């Protein structure tokens, strides 16, 4: 039996280094040799499986080793990047199976670590802006978006995509270093979401925004968001509220509220699951054209339990900027 190195969550909830059987691809699965991975809050929130190991990791860049018999999009040797499917084992392993419909070609201008930080956040930002909020790139009149949590992983991509779409971007950040990062990514204005937003908007000569994209917790930001959301505007959140929120302002403004969960398409194997492939291909084109930059902020090596624990601790601190990548199992 051929084995591979991996990092798994044991039944007690501790990350450990393990040896696992190397899987073989069938159907539309690719077997990818993993070169780099990234970490996301969704990893740190996962629970252990009772009585068995669980491999996490839903941001991967690597090289196609083998393909299943039904694959048509990729061949061995292709460099790829993807987030994958949260209902299947993740990519914290030397080799990983993933449905090719969820995979894009790695941007040629990036190394594996720079590419590994992009898939989950790019898919979330793209779906949130263009599929849920319905942002168009051809506006009849100027429109604006408030991105709550613009310095984080999703916010770092959403800021760039919103700028590319022609929106005025107001990003939120609360520290000098995170404010500088959001400005570096192209936000037109940066405001502090820990302070009342309306006075900050008025000081900038702004009244409201047509779109609000909330990438932080909903409850503590709700009133602030309602204050600046325009009548008939749209709100998208990537988390559900954890306590009741006042729906009256949303009703009064005839505003729409939608939610974005990047794993919906793979989890439910929707008929348009290949959208992930298409989005990642578009993002790669924009990266190689210089329209989007990698959000890599820190590299770690090698990929092992100790380094992943350190990366998760940084995520849990709530003070990370951009993304963290881990490279190589050597």
From TrEMBL:
Query: Superkingdom of this entry's organism?
Result: Bacteria
Cite the NCBIfam families for this sequence.
adh_fam_1
Q: Which PANTHER family match?
A: ZINC-TYPE ALCOHOL DEHYDROGENASE-LIKE PROTEIN C16A3.02C (PTHR44013)
Q: Where is the signal peptide?
A: none
Does Transport appear among the keywords? no
Its recorded name reads Zinc-type alcohol dehydrogenase-like protein
**Classification via CDD domains:** AL_MDR
The record lists the organism as Kyrpidia tusciae (strain DSM 2912 / NBRC 15312 / T2) (Bacillus tusciae)
Matches recorded under SMART domains: PKS_ER
GO terms, molecular function: oxidoreductase activity; zinc ion binding
UniProt keyword terms in alphabetical order: Metal-binding, Oxidoreductase, Zinc
The residue ranges of the Enoyl reductase (ER) domain are 8-326
């Amino acid at each position: 039996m051929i084995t591979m190195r991996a990092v798994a969550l044991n039944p007690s909830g501790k990350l450990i280094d393990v040896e696992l059987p190397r899987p073989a691809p069938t159907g539309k699965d690719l077997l990818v040799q993993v070169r780099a991975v990234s970490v996301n809050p969704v990893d740190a929130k996962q629970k252990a499986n009772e009585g068995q190991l669980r491999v996490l990791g839903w941001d991967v860049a690597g090289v196609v080793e083998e393909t299943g018999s039904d694959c048509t999009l990729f061949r061995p040797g292709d460099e790829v990047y993807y987030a994958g499917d949260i209902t299947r084992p993740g990519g914290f392993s030397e080799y990983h199976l993933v449905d090719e419909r969820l995979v894009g070609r790695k941007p040629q201008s990036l190394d594996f670590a720079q590419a590994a930080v992009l898939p989950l956040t790019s898919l979330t930002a793209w779906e949130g802006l263009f599929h849920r909020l319905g942002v168009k790139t051809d506006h009849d009149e100027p429109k604006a978006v408030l991105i709550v949590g613009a310095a984080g992983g999703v916010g770092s991509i959403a800021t760039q995509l919103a700028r590319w779409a022609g929106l005025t971007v107001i990003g939120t950040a609360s520290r000098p270093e995170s404010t500088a990062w959001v400005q570096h990514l192209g936000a037109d204005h940066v405001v502090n979401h820990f302070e009342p937003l309306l006075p900050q908007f008025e000081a900038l000569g702004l009244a409201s925004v047509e779109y609000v994209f909330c990438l932080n917790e909903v409850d503590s930001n709700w009133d602030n968001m309602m204050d600046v959301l325009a009548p008939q505007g749209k709100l998208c959140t990537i988390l559900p509220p954890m306590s009741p929120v006042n729906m009256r302002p949303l009703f009064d403004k005839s505003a729409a509220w939608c939610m974005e969960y990047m794993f919906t398409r793979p989890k439910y194997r929707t008929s348009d699951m290949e959208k992930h492939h298409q989005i990642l291909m578009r993002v790669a084109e924009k990266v190689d054209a210089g329209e989007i930059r990698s959000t890599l902020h820190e590299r770690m090596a090698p990929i092992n339990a100790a380094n992943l624990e350190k990366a998760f601790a940084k995520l849990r601190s709530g003070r990370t900027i951009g993304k963290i990548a881990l490279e190589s199992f050597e």
